[in-house]
User: Fold this.
Amino acid sequence: MSAGFVGLTLYQPGGLFDSIYFIEEVIVNTRSRYQDIMIARIKGFGKSLILDGWLQSTEADEYIYHESLVHPAMIMHDYPRQVLVLGGGEGATLREVLKYKSVEEAVMVDIDPLVVELSKKYLTEWHQGSFEDPRSKVMIMDGFEYVRKASEEAKKFDVVVMDLTDPYGSEIAMKLYSSSAFQLLKKIMDQQSILVVQAGSSTLFREAYERVEKAVSSVFKHVAEYVTWVPSFAYMNSFIIASDTYSFENIDVNIIDERVRERGLRLRFFNARRMVSMFGLAGLRLEGYNS
Amino acid sequence: MSAGFVGLTLYQPGGLFDSIYFIEEVIVNTRSRYQDIMIARIKGFGKSLILDGWLQSTEADEYIYHESLVHPAMIMHDYPRQVLVLGGGEGATLREVLKYKSVEEAVMVDIDPLVVELSKKYLTEWHQGSFEDPRSKVMIMDGFEYVRKASEEAKKFDVVVMDLTDPYGSEIAMKLYSSSAFQLLKKIMDQQSILVVQAGSSTLFREAYERVEKAVSSVFKHVAEYVTWVPSFAYMNSFIIASDTYSFENIDVNIIDERVRERGLRLRFFNARRMVSMFGLAGLRLEGYNS
Amino acid sequence: MSAGFVGLTLYQPGGLFDSIYFIEEVIVNTRSRYQDIMIARIKGFGKSLILDGWLQSTEADEYIYHESLVHPAMIMHDYPRQVLVLGGGEGATLREVLKYKSVEEAVMVDIDPLVVELSKKYLTEWHQGSFEDPRSKVMIMDGFEYVRKASEEAKKFDVVVMDLTDPYGSEIAMKLYSSSAFQLLKKIMDQQSILVVQAGSSTLFREAYERVEKAVSSVFKHVAEYVTWVPSFAYMNSFIIASDTYSFENIDVNIIDERVRERGLRLRFFNARRMVSMFGLAGLRLEGYNS
Amino acid sequence: MSAGFVGLTLYQPGGLFDSIYFIEEVIVNTRSRYQDIMIARIKGFGKSLILDGWLQSTEADEYIYHESLVHPAMIMHDYPRQVLVLGGGEGATLREVLKYKSVEEAVMVDIDPLVVELSKKYLTEWHQGSFEDPRSKVMIMDGFEYVRKASEEAKKFDVVVMDLTDPYGSEIAMKLYSSSAFQLLKKIMDQQSILVVQAGSSTLFREAYERVEKAVSSVFKHVAEYVTWVPSFAYMNSFIIASDTYSFENIDVNIIDERVRERGLRLRFFNARRMVSMFGLAGLRLEGYNS
Assistant:
């Protein structure tokens, strides 16, 4: 008479409504020095990574999230050689970055060795060998510290991808969403460099989003939001893209299209038309919302 | 230690995950001959209409839904004079249709007099007087029957908008999603006419969506999907647009832009760039999904 | 594939687990000066009173709660003439008190006129005319204030029944669970008087329960806990009974049995054997519990 | 603004309301040939066994359940020597049975070797070495088959304890709740033997309970219900006790008390007064209930 299900669920507060996911199997359930780590099979979405109780990515739709995160910045850049990924422990962000032959070095910095180790073992569909690519350099350390050291060594990156837990989720990523973190980041970027930041839902968690956007805007000349729908997240995910050279206002679909072809990218979600659309649907703010 | 809330919630199965909304106030809670009707204030989304326990539209984001439903078809048509709305009891679909000065008659057919009556009384933010517009003709009857009669009278519509409960929600709309219903509809449309159908989530309720799409495709030459994110629905909502004349493959953003200006439309969400984007982000199918 | 239900639910944190009730119909949904008041039909339990989102009593099992609350104290007393009910807006506590022909006056004091008014109108199964009994005296005022005034007038009660919202639920009852409130109460009771206090679940909300028990124990010589299972509450409800004369340690089932017969009580749940059992099953404390 | 928790929960339909438990840690999550087996730490209740998504017993209150299940039958019997436990894979039922020095052999029959193996390894607080007691004989086989064979060998048991999954929960126990199963059981019992059956909630799952009670009544002369509150179950658990010799109508608390002392039982929940109370509070049927 009541619910048709019984069993393990994942309860996820969502800002305005809460979501309940159905867990079919718990594969890993442990705690690192930094966070609770769970890998579980979720009904309809397959294998999934959950950190501190928050869903990070699922087998069924991680490609939407990761392609949307990586390609707008990479395709906008004329010739990305040096790429930095902050976070991204699953290895899928790295996987997308390495699709560009121009990339000479892809540095990935994740604070939690256990996330990386478990991803290597259980999330092969995510990384697909990207950790073993000779161009990959995986550092286990605090991202902030890495950036500080890199700036001292005058290292420069063409594209920087911030793929951290949400600015309203787990505590551990907070420091990297601050103005001072972005100022530090600027030091390891040049005039042509592009930064992209995963920023949760700007509609449902507006306040947290705007705090990050403000911090980025204090450092970069051009800043824009774009969005992609990740079905398992129950919302449009917002990304903040920033640069001192490229304005994101009039993206030419034909140029993007040409670059996707030229660079020989094999993609499942991203294409020129979708890139333009991701920018076109950004900026949704509900007036009645206060969380 | 457990949940931070206590009180009334709306439980909504969502295909792959369930959602829980927080009810602040129940304004109307009744039953018509056809369905349970509730008007309630939902945390973060304001006043909302709920039919048979399924959320229909909310004060905070109904404009996104209704503008996305109405304008692509209306703006594609060269000069829409006669418009038919099936369902749409809140009066907001009518409101958007009437924004076009070219419209001479907007017929709205809803089966449930109580939904219309309660909308008139409580959902003024939705209809905004559209029921009283001299061009409006509101019929309380079965939509299928209306179409049959109209076809006998050789009546023709330039644009037909199907704004019914989801093809997987309440039972009462099912008949109108069938092939025979679309064949009948075709009789009251001419070569230039455009049909648009709200079709739920093609990603989360794929099977139901594809059944409707197949039925529409059996009748019209050109059929396309476009999507819009309605935050309160927890998903991208799919629409099916169909015509024998207009292909929806290469929509020219400049023409749309010009028409929006020419026709003097005052809109909150819809614009030329967003229209193109809504088509650009359609077509998401998760392989792992089976519901 | 997911939940078999859709619609309105009541979400109730329960200390160690949360409960979800299915609402079939909202009958009243309003706010008084003091609290949110809802009367709704809950699946399986029928018409129910909900204050500030907390379930108070349901048509299906209110008799278990109210008979368990009232009769142990009333039956222990040799000849209850003057009875005071604090709270009990539904009128069902009054109904049980008035079953004793010895009662000359039953004073009920509730702070919220709207609860009493709505109960009179909608909860007829609860009060069954008890408000109209010539022996009833219903006062709308703060219970604490009533007790203060009554003590100044040297009024004495044989039995006092505290039927308030839980000591961990709504805020408004808190003052009456304090030591000073019980000291004040003592002034309007004599050597033979008996006090009974509804005290929520001593197992699931142990800390709140023990606070109240301690306050009562600082004032009365004999204090005991007894329990009754109220199915809709999802737990055994604890009551604290106190007196300076009667010890509750060795209740003679035969004497109770005889009194039930002598006093001509017509009851659905309570009897001598159950009274003994309610004391017998009290005192459950889970060691692992911390809320 | 919404729920204060995020993370893994156990969703449990409860007949009239559903319950949500908070999982702190998943210790084991696997599937045997017969069922899903999970051992998890549940907030407030500690380590817990969950079969096919249904909570079986928790560290915090398993003693209430197991003492209530075993001792009424064992204490009623004049001198229990041979005891049969059907189900009870955790080993806690065995633990309680072995507290009686009169017991010469305690046969435990569980169909699922994995439940027993995992219990041995992870649920040491439950079995406390009872599997190693020289009087224990653990058989991994279908209970029905065991009873058939034992009857062919003319084996007799003084007490039979049925400790299976609920008659409305998992499917695998269903066969043992039938009339034919009880007729077969009768063949391995003599005139003085006592049977006790865990029977779920007679109030919340009334129909399933009454089916079992009817089946037992068709075989035994005296049949009675008694109940105990298991906090983690969210209800009073019903047990059916049956015998051809002992009527359960007038249990003498003094005799029980004496036996508990004589037999040197060390118990946490059960005592003579509670035994009487468990029978005294049985028999709750809500009229409004239909599931």
In short: Chain A touches chain C through eight residues (CB under 8 Å). The mean pLDDT of chain A is 94. The radius of gyration of chain A is 18 Å. The first helix of chain A runs from residue 62 to 76.
